[in-house]
Specification:
Elements: H1 7-54, H2 57-63, H3 68-83, E1 87-91, H4 115-118, E2 123-129, E3 132-142, E4 148-157, H5 158-166, H6 169-198, H7 203-219, E5 223-227, E6 233-236, H8 238-244, H9 268-276, E7 280-286, E8 291-300, E9 312-321, H10 323-361, H11 365-389, H12 393-408, E10 412-418, H13 428-447, E11 454-462, E12 465-472, H14 503-513, E13 517-522, E14 529-536
Parallel strand pairs: 10-11
Antiparallel strand pairs: 1-4, 2-3, 3-4, 5-6, 5-9, 7-8, 8-9, 11-12, 12-14, 13-14
Helix pairs in contact: 1-5, 1-6, 2-3, 10-11, 10-12, 10-13, 11-12, 12-13, 13-14
Length: 548
Amino acid sequence: MIHRWSIARRLFVANLLFVLALTAVVGTAAFIDARDRTYDETGRRMAALAVSVADNPLVLQAAESPDPSARLQPYALKVMGDADADFITIMAPDRTRWTHPRNEELGQPYIGSISDALEGRVFTEITAGTLGPSVRTIAPVKDAGGSVKALVAAGVTVRTIDVAVAGRIPALLAISGALLAAGSLASWLLGGYLRRVTRGWGPEQLAQLFAYYESVLHSVREGVILIDPKGRVVMYNDQAAELLGLEPRDSGDDPANAPFLADLPLAPSLKNLFESGRTAHDEIHLTDSGVLVVNQGPAMGPDSPAGRQAAMFGTVATIRDRTEIESLGSELETMRTLSDALRAQTHEHANRLHTMVSLLELGRTGEALDFATQDLELSQQLTDDMVSSVQEPVLSALVMGKAAEAHERGVELVVQASGAAGAAGIAVQDLVTILGNLLDNAIDAATDAPGPRRVELHVESDGGGLDITVQDSGKGIEPDAVDDIFRYGFSTKEAGPFGRGLGLALVKQAVQRRAGTMTITNSGGTGGARFHIVLPAPDPHSLPEEQA
């Protein structure tokens, strides 16, 4: 049954038992100390009383008289009443009592030790006499020569002392009760706090939860990162370390040694998101290695009492890799471009067939043959130029598809290629991303141009790398927007059903990944934008064996 108790209940019971034991120990110690102090105080008071009586000349004079009791008994009773003592016994050196609270004890021998007093010393003891146990002091009565002529014993019974000690018990009980009440209140308040923090769970449940937490962090396919309100990265799992390019960190590491966000090599957009602590849903962020989808929300504490806001422990962010999805999207876009090109060519081919059929029906066979020959030469020339200049089949197909799409939209696409793009050793996927997005933007810009609609593509390739220039006849790019066009989400066009502002961001990412450079200018003649990209050839030793 106990193992089902929450941490708060266990702590409350343990603390209450500790307070009870502490109260008992402290109360007992205080009682014993009060009793010992009372005994010591009584002994000092009786010593002063006995010495005062022994120093009185009356006692020495009476001791030398024939009947000492006649003079000393009234004196002893009066002093005993004034000094609040239970007895004052004046006796001869042979123990014969001259005074006693009870007259029948006069002349009887004194019960107790007198050896130290006979040697001239004052001493105090606790012993039983005719009145019961008592605290008494025996002092010698000396003559002028220093001889002991009599002894004086003054004392208080233990029963009287115990009554005095009992008078302090209510105060001790009040102190003990206050200590018990304060300890119980502190235990109750601490238990309530722990109950809210641990949500009423026991240590076994928390240990099981932590085991699940560890398993989830290491098995989940998404990156998870926890950030406290001070900007420390308390924890991140292996997937987050891989996606963000961080050193692996164990979830059991001390949070006090957690790194700050400012010290981690994160992309600026990610760092700004994590530092802001704002809520984010499926935000796209670009890094040097890929495209990430980030969700972020606050890490709130358990429910607080009414009127108080729940404590915020920081933020939790989950990260998904969207690079593969974007690659598939690029491939899908390439296929869409090729299908659009085939559709446009089919449409144009149908028009040409109708023209040739009409010429044949009109009996103008020679003109029909010349028209077919010229159309075939133009198509073959474009195909031969692409195949001979751009030896990569995928790029050739991409450029031819873009050319057909541009023609359909009334844009002239001029292609100038030299060298062999495939010999540069650059991944085709990156080239498709760069050329496809640049041509798409250029064709869109040229389509909106009021004057001639023209797009020029220059591709130069050699063993040292690849040089790509794309220029359009559009309205150009505002100088203030040059730094923003590569940021995800920025676009000068209206957002479509799938969003805008990702194409050029992917271009920038691909160029950076290949250690290339990119410059943007507005051409003076046509007024359009000019994108110039230089991609160096990779080191053959760093390529896979089959690609090298």
